[in-house]
Write a structure and sequence with these properties.
This protein is of the alpha/beta class and 191 residues long. Helices cover 57% and strands 13% of the residues. Strands 2-3-1-4-5 form a five-stranded parallel β-sheet. α2 packs across α3. The structure holds adenosine-5'-diphosphate. The site of adenosine-5'-diphosphate (ADP) has 18 residues, from α2 and α3. The site of adenosine-5'-diphosphate has 18 residues, from α2 and α3. InterPro entries: Adenylat/UMP-CMP_kin, Adenylat_kinase_CS, P-loop_NTPase. Pathway: Purine metabolism; AMP biosynthesis via salvage pathway; AMP from ADP: step 1/1.
Length: 191
């Protein structure tokens, strides 16, 4: 199973991806987590992306396309993988299509988590409080506004892109976590 979780920051993509890892053994490929790991490791790439991420801007397509392309060849992706936070714009979506095509792979489904945007601020505030080791540098009102702006400009158009490909499904991201997981499990059972 190869799927994308699509939705604005704080929609619950990471939470749902982790449940899918536990329940089905798929690999979670979160570009945000991978970039944060590169920053924590102090790698050259990490140093390059830190300021960009802290502001809530997107890092360059080359970087994220490169890390995803390498990552999906790893053995833990054999059962399937969940793309979480990638693709985030049209160029990345097209690069992904091309990459999968070249690897002889095919996307099974794209699940869009629909949320009420004004509630995302409270969710992110809550996450900032609960994060062990202190809040993420971009979990603050200013960076979140920027992330939402970019989401609308660049990521939301992917809903139409995947709708046109006939692979889009939507779930109510405002439901309880387990109810969202149940909706996702039902979709996966049907594809
Ligand atoms: P969220 O979905 O909660 O906004 P993520 O953890 O997915 O957060 O991403 C955090 C930041 O990492 C983004 O604001 C961006 O700077 C960078 N990032 C993650 N994925 C991508 C991507 N596919 N393209 C460009 N930048 C990305």
């Amino acid at each position: 199973m190869k799927l994308i979780l699509l939705g604005p920051p704080g929609a619950g993509k990471g939470t749902q991806a982790q449940k899918l890892v536990a329940d089905f053994g798929y690999a979670q490929l979160s570009t945000g987590d991978m970039l944060r790991a590169a920053i924590a490791a102090g790698s050259e790439m990490g140093q390059k992306v830190k300021g960009i991420m802290d502001r809530g801007d997107l890092v360059s397509d080359d970087i994220v396309v490169g890390i995803i392309s390498e990552r999906i060849d790893a053995p833990d992706c054999a059962k399937g993988f969940i793309l979480d936070g990638f693709p985030r714009n049209g160029a990345q979506a097209e690069a992904l299509d091309k990459m999968l095509d070249e690897k002889g792979m095919k996307l099974d489904v794209v699940i869009s988590l629909e949320v009420v945007e004004k509630d995302l601020f409270a969710r992110i505030e809550q996450r900032a409080k609960e994060t062990v080791g202190g809040p993420r540098a971009d979990d603050n009102v200013k960076a979140l506004k920027k992330r939402l702006e970019i989401y609308h400009e660049q990521t939301a158009p992917l809903i139409k892109y995947y709708g046109d490909q006939g692979v889009l499904k939507t779930v109510d991201g405002m439901a309880q976590i387990d109810a969202v997981s149940a909706q996702i499990a039902k979709i996966l059972a049907e594809v």
